[in-house]
Amino acid sequence: MAPSLASGVSTSHFGVVSSLPAPGFEGFEKRLEVWFSPASSATCRGDGGNGTWSSGLSGLRLLSREELDALVEVAECTIVSQLSNDQFDAYVLSESSLFVYPFKLVMKTCGTTALLRAVPYLLKCAARLGLQSCGCKYTRGTFMFPAAQPYPHGSFQQEVEFLDRHFGSLGAGGRWFVLGDHGVFPRWHVYHAESDVSAAIESEQEKRGFLKPREPTFTLEMCMTELNRQLAKQFWKGPHFVNAKTVTERAGIADLLPGSEIDDFMFDPCGYSMNGVEGGACSTVHITPEDGFSYASFEMMGYDRGTDVGAIVHRVLQCFKPGRFSVAITCDGLPGVAGVGRWGTSLPLFEGYACDSSNRKEFMSGGRIAFHTFRCVSSEEVEASQVSGCSFVDPLPLFSDLKTRVIRGSKPRYSHRLETTDAEQVPIEKAAPLVECGSGWWLVEDAARN
């Protein structure tokens, strides 16, 4: 979403007033995902949106509209539209989106919102419903205007410390890491905490009707900058503007996931947001079209393992043709979970783009994340790279064959730099234990290339 973004202008949308410092609006979202379980046995994961939990109007979906309004108000945004089905509720916000499942809540906000400030109120509301948090995941890219962010988003260290106060006691404690190479924009900041789960407890919960058979939950997050100027113009309310639906269709957004029911919204004088609902799966698009700090994001969550991820990424790129973009793919699941299907296969070549960093990481709970950044390249650059032996076109590994080993003091063997997480990327004392293989540089190599 993007409001009027003139330098130093104070804008108001649906009762939310914010001072937007120069030079522009912060497109990169903060994303919080919190899982809940009945407080009497809070050792399980939350609803994955694809059958992990029983659906219906239960759990967090029992929160009143007044409570949800208060929740987003704490984060300094408002609800502008709603779309629901029998499995979850999707809300378009004045700054991004909110998704409410029976036992999971996902909230993402852009601009200078204070997303994490909503955590205490969320936990309070959940407790009233007899629910207790059993897991949390927080992700965001590198802010374009970090100095404009309010507490606790002034730095990743602040965010980690804040999250630890509320989720650090879960399981083995909160874990954080930053994916991406130094000097490559953006980098991907991740915080993860989750309760310990035993097969015996999970089996008992299934008997009691709390759980359905477990399936992994897949999430794709794309962040795009330097949008094609002509394509970005579609997201301004010009003299020929009709409605948000027309924009959705003309921009090709309606074709990204054709089976989705879409709730779209255009802002004044520019900016666009949409939520898509398809069974237990959701998708969302947010666009800030201003030249100089243009940004678009696409997310899909809860789609099955047969989804052709590469084809969807390609369709998204055709909608915006960004100069730079990143792809983060996450599989939330436990050891022994069913195969990851096409989500775990390699990403194909995206014509006109080169991958300038590639990273993979495994959560202690068994989940996995792969993160890649890309930049637009000319045909001359591609030809030169092939002559020099540095390939821009190798398929990018995801995580179906994740294998780690420590490599100290050696250079990457491929043009794609694999895992570059080190203990000094963010000045938090807690960083060192997060690199399970020890401090220093390490690479994640896929088995096929060893």
UniProtKB/TrEMBL annotation:
Sections of the chain in a coiled coil: none
Reaction(s) catalysed by this chain's protein: S-adenosyl-L-methionine + H(+) = S-adenosyl 3-(methylsulfanyl)propylamine + CO2
Alphabetically ordered keywords of this record: Autocatalytic cleavage, Decarboxylase, Lyase, Polyamine biosynthesis, Pyruvate, S-adenosyl-L-methionine, Schiff base, Spermidine biosynthesis, Zymogen
Gene Ontology MF terms in the entry: adenosylmethionine decarboxylase activity
Any one Gene Ontology cellular component term annotated for this protein: cytosol
Presence of the UniProt keyword Transferase in the record: no
InterPro entries: AdoMetDC-like, S-AdoMet_decarboxylase_euk, S-AdoMet_deCO2ase_core, S-AdoMet_deCO2ase_CS
Biological process annotations from GO: spermidine biosynthetic process; spermine biosynthetic process
Keyword set includes Transit peptide: no
EC number(s) stated in the UniProt entry for this protein: 4.1.1.50
Superkingdom, taxonomy of origin: Eukaryota
Known pathway: Amine and polyamine biosynthesis; S-adenosylmethioninamine biosynthesis; S-adenosylmethioninamine from S-adenosyl-L-methionine: step 1/1
CC cofactor: pyruvate
Family: Belongs to the eukaryotic AdoMetDC family.
Protein name stated in the entry: adenosylmethionine decarboxylase
Species per Swiss-Prot/TrEMBL record: Chara braunii
